[in-house]
Amino acid sequence: MPRIIEVREGILKKNDMLARTLRTRFSDARVSVVSLVSSPGAGKTELLHKTLATLTHTHRVGALVGDLATDRDARRLAQAGVPVQQITTGTVCHLDAHMIAQAIDGWDLASLDLLFIENVGNLVCPASYDLGEHARVVLLSVTEGEDKPLKYPTIFNTADLAVISKIDLADAVGFDKHEAYRNIHEVGPALTVTEVSARTGSGMDGWLQWLRQPLPSRR
Amino acid sequence: MHELSVALTLVEAACEKVGGLEDVRVEAVHVRLGPLAGVVKEALSFCFEVTARGTALEGARLEIEDVPLVVFCHDCDVERQLSSMQRFRCPVCDEPTPDVVHGRELELTALEVSDRATHH
Lengths: 219, 120
What we know:
The structure holds two protein chains of two kinds. Chain A is α/β, with parallel strands linked by helices. Chain A has one domain (13-212): P-loop containing nucleotide triphosphate hydrolases (Rossmann fold, 3-Layer(aba) Sandwich), CATH 3.40.50.300. Chain A contains eight helices and eight strands, in the order βαβαβαβαββααβαβα. Chain A has helices at 13-28, 44-55, 72-78, 97-103, 148-151, 153-157, 177-187, 204-212, and strands at 3-10, 32-37, 61-67, 84-88, 114-118, 135-141, 161-165, 192-195. Chain A is globular. Chain B is 24% helix and 32% strand. Chain B has two helices and six strands, in the order H-E-H-E-E-E-E-E. The longest helix of chain B is centred in the first third of the chain and has 17 residues, at 3-19. The chains are: A alpha/beta, B alpha+beta. At the A-B interface, strand 1, helix 1, helix 6 and helix 7 of A face helix 1, strand 1 and strand 6 of B.
């Protein structure tokens, strides 16, 4: 007769435990960690590039950037003159806590005020993996359409801030801002929303102000 | 498609539990899955079968229990089950409900094992 052995543990327990350890390390070193997620091409790297270039005058900033292949993003971000580490995931579609731990190996975390983690462009898989960040930011570019939050509710529901990016193109692509806000709040009622154009600089003040606030500590 | 990563982690975790048991065959692996876990049930089942091959779990069934999406409605002061992830609103009073009580579960809950027939 088959018998049942009760186990009851999170399948991603190892990742979650490592993420918690990382978050404690970050907090102890007084570095705030923000991760960015979006679909490919929503403008994570451009936003991060402009953000690093601005914040480097007032804060000690750094970035980890995940991609399936190439170090193009890391080279682009390093132009801001701040420490940047590329994480090449190969065929893996998301970052996990172990990759973050490896990437910051040897870093003096106490020498940073703010560390960004740019995830692989993907609105599905990153939702399941805690990276030890203090806040998760999801980008939605106006060219993607207002209904993206309804199609990918999990990532929006687990984010702390939604950034509507490429806002300078809103009129050109007929973006319905009211509809976008409504959809974001249907799947994440408590989600703060901000609008930016990294290219024109419009909305950057609001975004930078959010970053300077004490971050919500996840989980 | 991170279900493959999840399946590998699941198989590894379940094999660790089986490792301490002598002469048992794993009949089934039981998991609980919430809609906000970000894992597709069918993909996980497929990946489980593939990743279990050549391990102590080979041939075991994967039993997935769906966990309903449950939120807390502050206006009604009670937990409510939602029928859609596209609408985080109380089904009774229609107020937005950001507080998720259940739905993020991605858990290994139990192993179903039977003793292998031993020859004397």
